[in-house]
Design brief:
This protein has 274 residues and is of the alpha/beta class. The chain has helices at residues 7-29, 95-113, 128-145, 197-207, 266-271; strands at residues 47-49, 64-66, 88-93, 118-124, 151-162, 165-173, 185-193, 213-222, 234-239, 244-245, 261-264. Helix 2 (95-113) packs across helix 3. The structure holds hypoxanthine and magnesium ion (MG). Residues 126, 161, 192, 194, 243-245, 249 line the site of hypoxanthine. Its cofactor is Mg(2+).
Amino acid sequence: MWLAKTPLDIFSASFSLPFCEWSLKRRQQNGHRFYPDPAPPVATIVFTQSEPLQMDNTGMKRGIVIKDDWPGYSLDLFTYPEHYHEDIENVYIPHGVIMNRTERLARYIMEDFGDNNIMVLCVLKGGYKFCADLVEFIKVFGRNSNKYLETRVEFIRLKSYLNDQSTEDLHIIGSRDLSFLRGKCVLIVEAIVDTGKTMKALLKHVETFEPKMVKVAGLLVKRVPNMAERLTDYVGFEIPNRFVVGYALDYNEYFRDLNHICVISKTGKMKYKV
Ligand code: HPA
Ligand code: MG
């Protein structure tokens, strides 16, 4: 901070302030683009971190908390497929933020798994992008630290949503036989966990195959009433109870080709309803 120390300082400050204004006017007259007031912000970020990070990763249980009043970013600020122009309200979590957060989660996972190889169980279809990016970051960390872990990826397909409503049961599409998990250190990778019912049922099913260890990575966890106990060990973002699409999350199979996570508009819901 500037402080006047001598009478000369006070004199020069009282001279220089009007001089600045005069100089500004001159520059504007001469056609300079000059902004005397700061331009209004294009967006205000209200992401908050839940808790200080702790060595045992318990601070990971909520991830980055996005508050209920987060309005998202205006669509004008980002690029997205033109065909979804009327179908999304805002960019809720930009793709770049998702990527960086995923990189961070990869680091936690590496630390926790130690020297154990990772058997990844990717929950399709919504989890395919998060899983691919997460595994890629794990591989990069391995290369950069000379600590190569073998990562195997298997897939399980679940379906529990019609339109934007959860259906009750765990529907495994395809084989229920997960015997390849026996004795392995398993990382279940899911894009979104909301009521936790599906994840609870899946965990119970996975446990029957006697893995050595099971952890869950969820990019998004929804803040819903009567939330089941926190089943997700590595959380990207805790979000309000809103229906979001993009980054492989769908609404009746649409929007998987959108890179950002966005809030669907009324028009979008009507257009793709079944
Ligand atoms: N979007 C897409 N799929 C989902 C959601 C959601 O908000 N919640 C559970 N499955
Ligand atoms: Mg879905």
